[in-house]
Each structure stands twice: as structure tokens, then as C-alpha cells.
Amino acid sequence: HEEQHYLDLKDMPFYGGLCKYMSSGPILAMVWEGQSIVKLDRMMLGETNPADSKPGSIRGDLCINIGRNIIHGSDTLENAKREIELWFKAEEFVSYTPCTQAFLYE
């Protein structure tokens, strides 16, 4: 999956190393949903370069090297849809309404 996931970076010099790194251990793939989720996701993850990430973000607290930034998040809804189709089958999703729904959303 890694090669397909990062296909847009295929011509970059780090592509092979990136795919090797991303397949070097377990991967926990998940789908988040909610209002403005891509924007919120990017805030929680931090910048691609950990040196530019804010403290309190995953990359800001846990990463030191751009080539080992430990986490991926889709940067657009379009990319999210493509990546979801790559990693998941439709029957793997469960639809539910969280008990906090009424407290969080108008």
C-alpha cells in the first residue's frame, strides 16, 4: 500500500526510503470524521517538518527529523477519499452516532 499511497512523490529522491520506512513496522490506519476534520487533523499532527511544529502537536512533541515524522494525515478531502479507498474496504466501516454528538455540533 505504501507505494500507492505515496505515488505522488514517486519522482522525489526520498521516495524509496519513505516507502521502506513506512513499511518497516506496524501501521495503524484509521479514518477520522467531523466538522473541519482536515484542518483539525493538521493542527493535531503538526507540520510535515517537525522543526516547524508547535509544542503539543504529535510531531512537535515526538519527532525530530522530517524523514521520520511518524504520522501521516491527509492534507485535503480529495486526498483523504483516495487514501481511504486505498487502505479500507467499504464493509470495514461502522456507522454510529457518538453520544457526544448533541453537545459538540449544532
Automatic annotation (TrEMBL):
Catalysed reactions listed for this entry: a 2'-deoxyribonucleoside 5'-diphosphate + ATP = a 2'-deoxyribonucleoside 5'-triphosphate + ADP; a ribonucleoside 5'-diphosphate + ATP = a ribonucleoside 5'-triphosphate + ADP
Keyword check for Cytoplasm: yes
One Gene Ontology cellular component annotation held by this UniProt entry: nucleus
UniProt xrefs under SMART domains: NDK
Domain Nucleoside diphosphate kinase-like span(s) in chain numbering: 3-95
Keywords attached to this entry: ATP-binding, Cell cycle, Cell projection, Cytoplasm, Kinase, Magnesium, Metal-binding, Nucleotide-binding, Nucleus, Phosphoprotein, Transferase
BP GO annotations: CTP biosynthetic process; GTP biosynthetic process; UTP biosynthetic process
Cited InterPro entries: NDK-like_dom (IPR034907), NDK-like_dom_sf (IPR036850), Nucleoside_diP_kinase (IPR001564)
EC number: 2.7.4.6
Organism superkingdom: Eukaryota
Signal as UniProt keyword: no
Class in the EC hierarchy, top level: transferase
Example of a GO MF term: metal ion binding
Cofactor(s) for this UniProt protein: Mg(2+)
Role noted for this protein: Major role in the synthesis of nucleoside triphosphates other than ATP.
Name used for this protein in its record: Nucleoside diphosphate kinase B
UniProt organism field: Epinephelus coioides (Orange-spotted grouper)
